[in-house]
Amino acid sequence: MRSFLYQRATDPGMAVQALSAAAAANNPLTQAAAQPLAGGTTLIDLMKLDVMRPAAIVDINPLARGWSGIETGGEKLRLGALAKMSDVAAHADIQRHYPVIANSLRLAASAQLRNMATLGGNVMQRTRCSYFRDTSYDNCNKRIPGSGCAAMDGVNRMHAVLGTSDQCIATYPGDFAQALIALDATVEITGKSGTRSMPFAQLHKAPGNTPDIETTLQPGELISAFSIPRRWPRSVYLKARDRQSYEFALSSAAIALDVQDGMIRDARVALGGVATVPWRAREAESLLKGQKFDDGLARRAADAAFADAKGRQHNSFKISLGKRLVARALQQASTMEV
Amino acid sequence: MSDKSSSRSSGFDRRAFMAGAGIALVPLTARAAVQDPTQAAAQDPALPVEVTLRVNGQDKRLRIDARTTVLDALREHMGLTGSKKGCDHGQCGACTVLIGDRRVVSCLTLALAAEGQEITTIEGLATGDRLHPMQQAFIDNDAFQCGYCTPGQIMSAVACVKEGHAGSDEDIREYMSGNICRCAAYPNIVAAVKQAAPDIMKG
């Protein structure tokens, strides 16, 4: 690991100031000279691997006093960005009114990592692409812009089939983000000029020609909270993986249904493990809305979700796996007792 | 799982070089809250920092490289070698300790970020010569072969029980999945956690 200056921020203003001051012009956020430290489960790992090389670390854990609240009063849910994954997953109101959120967190990582990792850090988690994580590979457009992509014709079994570009096929690895994007979450961002909010769906950027730029956050900006506008008691998170526990998704589905008198009034479908960014499958949602649920409808919706998927040599299985997972998650959601 | 251990050697080389070049090492409180980031940026991050860690009820003042993890602080600076370094990337759980009442992987926790918090390691579990119920349960159930993962397993298991996640075999397997055992002593580990759980819950 390269040496760095450790700074501890005791209020948001200090954190923003320290992060902006050290931010070099035109550097993508992920390569910024100063990085915020929350749980550290991605940052310290990637610093040990020499993939991330910040000159300064700004420890924002002291901000948890104001930024880790779980507010569940009424329809709306507000989650502080420094809330720990384990605390949110174990919260009785979240489990009851937003099961897709609780389960996306519970099925992620290990108990130790969920105790450390924060919600804000979790959505900023970097890809697990082995060609990105291993600096002995020269070709990674995400790590070294313009250097090529070793994954395209490499061992790409874990890589994305949706949202890819000819520059990058790295999978977005998280789980919680799928629940957020499905439920129309808003992300609150704290920066130099105070706080701003935007749809969570606008946070991550598909790789396109700039896979090194992963989010729309600016240097010096921090995620301070997430909001979900309404309850979704009929919601599930299903995750298929190589191991039964403690493994990244080969394919996952975040599903939320609003069913009245047998009719689907509203439907949400988001996909994980198969796309370069948290992925909302709006084509599938359109098919479901206004229909009566049956297994044929679930299969058609699943087909629609993967209509644009492009498999490569080793990851084409994710398309059929993903479709079956979406159909199964829809069946589970439709038969939930709520 | 990884052989990328360049961190310590590069840190050592830098210090050796600086000592050889006659540069005085000045104690530095880089951990201080950010006052003026432009000033702070002028400090040399390669210089040692002072940190006080509270481990098993005792405060220990250390002068360390800012890059030092809690795991390396325990093992290399405090002589507490019970916590093990397996992967050093948060994947195996061998380094599990409690910070406060939470189990964490100490290999991904910076020592500086753990300052002011109560750290409990495997060395802090027993009461005098009396083993903690979980330690005894691991012995009673033969819940290990080589033993390398065992300190992490035991620390994780104590927290697993206190979290209320030891109610069934299925729960124990799920909530202990962050601790890998290459000898695959898993069935006996589950049995040990089940045996110790009632004692721990009684307090």
Describe the secondary-structure layout.
The complex is a heterodimer of chains A (338) and B (203).
Chain A (H helix, E strand, L loop, with lengths): L4 E4 L3 H10 L12 E4 L5 H6 L7 E4 L4 H4 L2 E2 L5 E4 L4 H5 L2 H6 L1 H8 L4 H6 L2 H5 L6 H4 L42 H7 L3 E6 L2 E6 L22 E7 L6 E6 L10 E10 L2 E10 L6 E2 L1 H7 L6 H11 L11 H19 L3
Parallel strand pairs in A: 1-3, 2-3
Antiparallel strand pairs in A: 4-5, 5-8, 6-7, 6-8, 9-10, 10-11, 11-12
Helix pairs in contact in A: 6-10, 11-12, 12-13
Chain B lengths: L5 H15 L16 H5 L7 E7 L2 E7 L5 H8 L18 E4 L2 E4 L12 E3 L12 H8 L9 H13 L6 H7 L10 H17 L1
Helix pairs in contact in B: 4-7, 5-7
What report would you give on this structure?
The complex is a heterodimer of chains A (338) and B (203). Helix content of chain A is 29%, strand content 19%. Chain A contains 13 helices and 12 strands. Chain A has helices spanning 12-21, 43-48, 64-67, 85-89, 92-97, 99-106, 111-116, 119-123, 130-133, 176-182, 282-288, 295-305, 317-335; strands spanning 5-8, 34-37, 56-59, 70-71, 77-80, 186-191, 194-199, 222-228, 235-240, 251-260, 263-272, 279-280. Chain A has a 5-stranded antiparallel beta sheet. Chain A has a 4-stranded antiparallel beta sheet with strand order 9-10-11-12, sandwiched between helices. Chain A has a 3-stranded parallel beta sheet with strand order 1-3-2, with helices on one face. The longest helix of chain A is centred in the last third of the chain and has 19 residues, at 317-335. The model of chain A has no long low-confidence stretch (mean pLDDT 96). Chain B is globular, with a radius of gyration of 19 Å. In chain B, a hairpin with a 2-residue loop joins strand 3 and strand 4 (102-105). In chain B, helix 5 (150-162) crosses helix 7. Chains A and B meet through strand 1, helix 1, helix 2, strand 3 and helix 7 of A and helix 1, helix 2, strand 4, helix 5 and helix 6 of B.
